[in-house]
Amino acid sequence: MIKRLKGFLWLAIPIIAVIFISLGLMEILTAQQPSISHPLTSLTEAEISTAVSVIKREKTLSKMAAFPLITLQEPDKKEVLNFTPGKAFQRKAFLVIYERCLRQGLCPTQNKTFEGIVDLTSKTLSSWKEIPSVQPAIVNSEYELAIQVVKADPRWQKAMQRRGITDFDQVKISSWAPGILSQQEEATGNRFCRSLSYYKGKSWNYYGSPIEGVVATVNLNTGKIASFVDRGNVPFSKENWNYDVKSLGKLLSPLKTLKILQPNGASFQIKDNEISWQGWKFRYLMHPRNGLMLYQVTHKDGENIRPVLYRANLSEMVVPYGDPEPTWSFRNAFDVGEYNLGLLANTMELSKEIPENGLLLNAVFANEQGEPYVMPGVIGIYERDNGMLWKHYEYNTQRNDVRRSRELVMTMTAAVDNYDYSINWIFHQDGTLEVQNELTGIVLAQGTAAQKQSEDNSYGRLITKNIFGVNHQHFFNYRLDFDVDGQANSVMEMNVKALPMDEKNPLGNAIAVAETPLTKETAAVRDLDMKSSREWMIVSADKKNTLGAAPGYMLMPGGNSIFFPVEGSKIRQRAEFATHHVWVTKYKPAELYAGGDYPNQTQPGQGLPKYIADDESLMNEDIVLWYTMGITHIPRSEDWPVMPVHQVGFKLVPRGFFSRNPAINLPEPIPVN
After folding, report:
1. I want to staple 595 with a disulfide (CB 3.0 to 4.6 A). Which of 39, 61, 339, 599 is the partner?
2. Strand partners, 155
3. Which pLDDT does position 100 carry in this prediction?
4. DSSP symbol at 575
5. Burial tier of 385 (Cβ tally within 10 Å: 0-12, 13-18, 19+)
6. Is 143 designated active site?
7. How far apart are the first and last CA of the chain?
């Protein structure tokens, strides 16, 4: 029997390999999981299991206890910076535990949130505390509970029947964090979600058929409907909005094959979770909440390894919708903190999300039961051509000097219900680090009787018959812990202005730049100003470059927007981080999230407003810059049924950091025969 099994396996392995190649996943199989060789290595499956077992051993948890978040307890920054290979280091896990418990009155820990830290070396519980009056991210079992509760409710059933829907299996329930709470909801202290309904019919793409005006608010602690709204029948689209090849019918003419080949292999090196490329060196970590994070970003300058960033990551998002109608005005999604963006990452495929020359890497996560699992192919890394890097053509000699630009891209994608996002960290050869977010997916549809655009509805645009796209915004806040040539940094604001005509400027062409230090946290809450071409620079406070100036890295903003909800609005109070483009704080290890640790059902003023309340000095300090960027989306017909990618981003550009163009001495490109 054993011999026959071995024979079967030898036959099966090539077949399995062919299957994986056809799926574009072979690179996932060959990508090695990081060994525990550094303090910033992600938790392993064994470590997650150990952490959960210690919690269960030390604390009495109910059967309904959930683990919304299990991740590495970030080690002390000084210990990491002083770490040398082979040196012993601590390993700890950070866990959020939520006790929901549906047996009203029988659970003393009902609707309570706890944080635990487990020492993985000694297998002991080193910290345990209740965090009062907070709600962690929604977990999968709560979505399932909401479906059962909503579909069993007689009011919901009658609402469906009034719309001619008798087969409730044809209705899809989509649940959101509750967003803006009523005073009555706030007073209960309970945990809620709000459930929307969509008609599936025979289509798998149900987003085009919202059952408008019906919202059920579910009390996730009692397992009952807390409130139910039905604002009357609104026609919904009966069209088939599936976008698979078969449903689309006639396709465009296919393009000719474009091959991306690196016959000598990739130019980057990976050792555990450390990546090196073209002078850059950094570590990466896939966080269940933040998604793809970078640590210890350095650049080699001659023989010197110079630090730029200690930690960089997406800190929070908010997506406010702009229709004041009560079944829409609560929709303000904090996609990072309310839903754990990292856990929503999807497996990518070569030649699809990333090109064929890329490499796909796995990540280890934990589900809400505390069970570890491997998510394949959620991180992509690849090199790509980016046109010219630098060039000069000399007319006198007809000399043509040019170098092509290559970029290293590290990426992840995540689907948050209808919307899809990608986060891209892009390393350039000239010392620039770029962040580019891509937005795609399906516009959140509003059902309408309208067949043509009405001038009297300014809250959005009709994007196809019976489907209205509501005006909304997407705001992203990035936490950037700079260490430019060390931890002693300061922040400067650069403003440009035209000088008036006078005896010193008779032709009126003078352009002057002023650099102003932002000395305190409250003074460093700033906004973009196109009129003054405003930018910000993090500079070393104790080092000088070859010209006697402080070396620095400059924040170069890309496209952006202002936060449109008005002063006094509830969402403006909850998402205060989005009301300004730049915040700067003195480094504190517990200050991690722009919208606060627990944005789900949060109180106003959490996160950055609290962080700057002590108004710390920013001069010659270890400082963190928080950058908020946003887009305002007025939907259009071309966004339907799946939206073309929209990009928004920023760059971190060296300014006085290098003594010359760091890519000037690249070798000439080798001609391809």
Report:
1. 599
2. none
3. 84
4. T
5. exposed
6. no
7. 55
User: Does residue 637 have a pLDDT over 90?
Assistant: yes
pLDDT number for residue 454: 75
Q: Rounded distance, CA 56 to CA 370, Å? A: 10
Query: What's the Cα-to-Cα distance from 127 to each of 118, 165, 597, rounded to whole Å?
Result: 7, 52, 17
- Distance in angstroms (rounded) separating the CA atoms of residues 40 and 329: 41
Please state, in angstroms and rounded to a whole number, the distance separating the CA atoms of residues 297 and 225.
49
Task: Supply the pTM of this predicted model.
Answer: 0.94
Helix (H) or strand (E) holding 332: strand 332-333
Over the stretch 56-78, which tens digit does the pLDDT of each residue have? 999 999 999 999 999 999 999 99
- Identify the band that residue 123 occupies on the pLDDT scale cut at 50, 70 and 90: very high
Catalytic pick from 419, 421, 587, 598? 419
- SS3 string, 205-266, reads CHHHCEEEEEEEEEECCCCEEEEEEECCCCCCCCCCCCCCHHHHCCCCCCCCCCCCCCCCCC
Nearest to 40 by CA among 271, 275, 273, 269: 273
394-427 burial, b at 16+ Cβ within 10 Å, e below that, comes to eeeeeeeeebebbbbbbbbbbebbbbbbbbbbbb
597-615 residue pLDDT tens: 999 999 999 999 999 999 9
CB 576: neighbour CB atoms within 10 A?
Answer: 23
d(CA 650, CA 435): 5
Measure Cα distances from 123 to 92, 188, 437, 617 in Å: 9, 38, 39, 39
Tell me the C-alpha distance between 656 and 301, whole Å.
13
Across 341-346, average pLDDT: 98
For tokens 């400082």, the residue is: 623
Q: Specify whether 335 is catalytic.
A: yes
As a whole number, the mean pLDDT across the chain is: 93
pLDDT of residue 25: 41
